[in-house]
Amino acid sequence: MDAVTGKDAMGQGRAANLASGLFVTFEGGEGSGKSTQIKRLAQDLVQDGLNVIVTREPGGTPAGELVREVLLGGAAESLGADMEAMLFAAARRDHVVSVIRPALQAGGIVLCDRFLDSTRVYQGLANALPQQDLKALETLAIDGLMPDITILLDIDPHLGLKRAAARRGQGDGPDRFEKETLQTHIDRRNAYLALAVAEPDRFVLMPANRPEDVIAEEIALVVRTHMAAQILRQEADGG
Ligand code: TMP
Q1: Which amino acids bring their CB within 6 angstroms of ligand 1?
Q2: How far does the chain reach from its first CA to its final CA, in angstroms?
Q3: Which of 55, 130, 133, 163 has a CA positioned 20 to 30 A from the CA of residue 12?
Q4: Is residue 207 reached through a cis peptide bond, with omega within 30 degrees of 0 on the bond before it?
Q5: Along the 239 residues of the chain, how does pLDDT read in single tens digits?
Q6: CB–CB of 191/134 below 8 Å?
Q7: Which residues does 10 contact at the CB level (< 8 Å), separation at least 6?
Q8: How far is the CA of 238 from the centre of ligand 1 (A)?
Q9: Mutation test of ligand 1: which of 177, 179, 187 has the most ligand atoms closer than 8 Å to its C-beta?
Q10: Which domains are delineated in the chain?
Q11: 119: which residues sit within 8 A by CB, 6+ positions away?
Q12: What is the DSSP letter of 73?
C-alpha cells in the first residue's frame, strides 16, 4: 500500500464495495478546522468515484436546520440547557433516521460535522441533565448508530477562538455556544480528550495547529486504511 495515500490497497472498484457504508464524524472545539477538513476529504474521496455525503449537526435535514437556527441563534437559551439538549437530540434522531442510516445502507460514506460527542461534551459540561438522562436521550437520538471513526481535531482554545472570530468576519458576534468563557472552552477541550482516551478504537486524535495539507493527508490515510480493513473483513466473511 502507498504509505501516504493508502490508495493502492483500495483500488477504485474495491472501494465502491463497502457493504455497510462508512460513518465518519468530525469533532472539536470552535475554530478547529472541521469544515475545511471535511470538504477536503470529501473532494478526495469523490475523485475516486466514491459515494460521499457531507452533512452536519445540528442540521442535515430541513427540520434539523430549523432547530440549528433556534439553538445557535440563542432563541432556546432561555428555555434552559435541558431543553437545548432535547432539541439537539430531536434533530439528531431525525438526521439519523432520514439521512445518515439510509446513506450508509446504500453503501455511502457519510462525513458528519459533529455528532453525539458534541452533546456529551457541550451539554454534558453544561449539566444540561443528570448523566443518566443525557445517556437515555443519546440512546433515543442515535437509534443504535455509532460512528465508525471519529476524527477529533484538537486545538488550543486561545488559537481556535481567534480563528473562529477571523472566519466570522466583521459585524457578526459569536453564536450561543461560542460566547462562553475561555475556561469553558478549555474544559470542553479536556472533555473531548477524555472521550478520546476512553474510546481509542473509535477516536483519532489530530493536533489541529499544523498545516492544513498535512492534516488532510493524515485524515485521508486514516479513512482509507479503515476502508481497506473493512473490505478485507467483508471478504473474509464471504461478503
Ligand atoms: P458549528 O457547526 O459551527 O460547529 O456550531 C455548532 C455549535 O453547536 C457548536 O458551538 C457546538 C454546539 N453543539 C452542541 O452544543 N451540542 C451538540 O450536540 C451539537 C451537535 C453542537
Answers
A1: 56-58, 72, 88, 113-114, 118-119, 122-123, 177-178
A2: 22
A3: 55
A4: no
A5: 333 333 444 444 444 568 889 999 999 999 999 999 999 999 999 999 999 999 999 999 999 999 999 999 999 999 999 999 999 999 999 999 999 999 999 999 999 999 999 999 999 999 999 999 999 999 999 999 999 999 999 999 999 999 999 988 777 889 999 999 999 999 999 999 999 999 999 999 999 999 999 999 999 999 999 999 998 998 898 86
A6: no
A7: 48, 224, 227, 228, 231
A8: 40
A9: 177
A10: 2-236 (3.40.50.300)
A11: 85, 88, 89, 92, 134, 137, 138, 141
A12: T
Cell numbers representing residue 103 in the block: 446513506
Q: How far is the CA of 169 from the centre of ligand 1 (A)?
A: 19
Per-residue CA distances from 211 to 31, 36, 155, 165, 225 (Å):
14, 12, 13, 19, 22
Could you identify the atom of ligand 1 that is nearest to the CA of residue 88? Answer: 18
33 grid coordinates: 478546522
Kindly report the pTM of this predicted structure: 0.93
